[in-house]
Specification:
The structure holds two protein chains of two kinds. By secondary structure, chain A is mainly α. The longest helix of chain A is centred in the N-terminal third of the chain and has 23 residues. Chain A is globular. By secondary structure, chain B is α+β, with helices and mostly antiparallel strands. Chain B has four helices and nine strands. A five-stranded antiparallel sheet of chain B has the order 2-1-4-3-9, with helices on one face. In chain B, strand 6 and strand 7 form a beta hairpin. The longest helix of chain B is centred in the N-terminal third of the chain and has 30 residues. The N and C termini of chain B lie far apart (89 Å). Classes of the chains: A mainly alpha, B alpha+beta. The interface between A and B is medium-sized, with 34 and 26 residues.
Chain lengths: 179, 198
């Protein structure tokens, strides 16, 4: 998935015992995890917190990780679970964000600089598990099978979530695409 | 809108960039939250280099010591007499205080069996020779050590009267009866009368 994705016994033993090896792992995956967290939350500060929490949890769980999957998949799983829990805790914040977006749209015509915010808003309107499926497959390039391993569900479930998410996103962004 | 158009639109919305020093500091931030000691900043490899050099130097010393004594032993008809050399055994024990479980010599040469922790008490060294046909393993070890010798797991013990006992899963050998055979193995064993161990 990414460079430095070695989950062999030797590499894991190294991660557990060598602080510098853990730093290398963090550096290899930090941007990927931050991007995932941002797309799941739409908030830079929340993405920072969630990315940090991902690596802190990974460090605590290193002893029990046996290399059944790649390091990247394992980290994704931790990050996605944190983001899904975040989603439940911040319903109100999301509602405020939606209200702000609608206000902006009412005031000015859609334009390129706003496009990113509009796309992010559309992502935030998705149910969290559909959002996770889209982020993992579209942005992080995972196959449905790989995303299923991250999300802890079947490949068919991922395919359905991606299908449903695409349908909603197309509706949300249709006007934007037509310019 | 088809899927590829949707993908293009989705991907065009980039994640807001973070400054480079944010990424440089990120691992240090994680470490500080873990409460771990900092590793040296990037670009400073001196402590790692020092450890690497120290390890390399230790390996060289061990290699030279074993090689030196092995050469002397080969000059002495290669019969494992080296393991009965007090100076040699003392040198090895000094290099790894309380960690040497056994010094073994077989057809492949000399090797050390070390404990991961300093938990091997100094006691009278026991010399053991186990032969299976023409293949022999000679070793110096200490009472209480469990070792794999000639493919068999054995515990080497000394008794109160200065004898040596070898105990395996399905056999026991006692130096009081040296001619007994354990399966197809011939055994010799005795304590070494080294001054440093008294």
């Amino acid at each position: 998935m990414v460079a430095g994705d070695d989950s062999s016994e030797t590499a894991l033993a190294n991660l557990r015992s060598d602080p510098e090896a853990f730093d290398v792992m963090v550096r290899s995956h930090q941007r990927m995890i931050y991007s995932l967290a941002y797309r799941m939350t739409g908030s830079e500060s929340d993405a920072e917190d969630l990315a940090q929490e991902t690596f802190i949890r990974a460090h605590r769980q290193l002893e029990s990780f046996r290399g059944e999957s790649s390091l990247g998949t394992w980290l994704y799983r931790i990050a996605v679970n944190l983001c899904l829990n975040w989603r439940e805790r911040t319903q109100r914040r999301e509602q405020l964000h939606r209200d702000w977006s609608e206000e902006q749209d009412a005031r000015s015509p859609a334009s390129d600089p706003q496009m990113a915010a509009r796309v992010q808003d559309a992502l935030l309107r998705l149910p969290s598990k559909q959002r996770a499926a889209i982020v993992l497959t579209v942005y992080d390039g995972l196959s449905h099978a790989e995303a299923a391993r991250v999300l802890g569900c079947t490949e068919a479930t991922v395919s359905w979530r991606v299908f449903a998410a695409r349908a909603k996103l197309k509706r949300q962004l249709k006007a934007f695409n037509n310019g | 809108m088809d899927n590829s158009e949707l993908n293009r639109l989705l991907r065009s919305a980039e994640v807001p960039a973070r400054p480079e020093d944010y990424w440089e500091d990120f691992p240090r931030l994680i470490r500080s939250k873990l409460g771990r000691p900092e590793t040296p900043p990037r670009g400073s490899r001196r402590p790692v280099l020092a450890w690497a050099l120290a390890t390399a130097a230790t390996c060289l010393v061990i290699g030279f010591t074993l090689g030196h004594w092995h050469a002397r032993d080969r000059a002495g008809a290669n019969n494992g007499l080296i393991l009965q050399n007090e100076k040699f055994v003392h040198e090895i024990l000094s290099m790894f205080p309380n960690r040497v479980r056994a010094i073994m010599k077989d057809e492949d040469g000399l090797r050390l069996v070390l404990s991961e922790e300093e938990n091997v008490p100094l006691s009278i060294p026991l010399w053991v020779k186990v032969c299976q046909g023409l293949k022999c393993v000679t070793l110096v070890t200490f009472s209480g050590q469990e070792l794999s010798i000639a493919g068999q797991k054995m515990t080497v013990l000394s008794d109160a009267s200065g004898g040596v006992i070898l105990v395996g899963d399905q056999f026991a050998w006692d130096s009081k009866w040296p001619d007994q055979r354990m399966k197809d193995l011939q055994v010799q064993a005795r304590p070494l009368e080294f001054a440093f161990a008294k």
